[in-house]
Amino acid sequence: QVQLVESGGGLVQLGGSLRLSCAASGRSFSSYAMGWFRQVPGKEREFVAAVIWSGLKTHYADFVKGRFTISRDNAKNTVYLQMNSLKPEDTAVYYCAADHSKSDFIRREKDEYEYWGQGTQVTVSS
Asked: Is the pLDDT of residue 15 over 90?
C-alpha cells in the first residue's frame, strides 16, 4: 500500500510556471506506475500525464504536450509535474495517482489507478 501527498500548487499568472510534487510513503515506490490527473468542479477527472515505474516512458494529454513534464525520483519516492506556460484553463485541482505495476504500459484512465492523493489546487490568473 502507498500513501500519496501532493504539494506545490498555488496561484500563478498566465504564462507562469509551477512544479507539483507527489511524495509517496511506503516501500517499493519504484514498483508503481504514476500519473497526474486534474479536475474542475462539475467535470470528470481528466488525465494529464503518466510515467512508468522506471521513469523511462512517459505520456501526456494533448493539451499539455510541450508545456508539462512528468518525472520521478525513485530514490526520493517522489513524482513531479513541471508545468510551464500555464493558461487559465489549466486551473484545477491536480491529483497524483499510483498503481502497483512494473509494466511498460502507460495508464491513462483513472480507473487504472488504485491509490490517490488528496489533491493540490492550481489557479492560473489572466
From this structure: yes
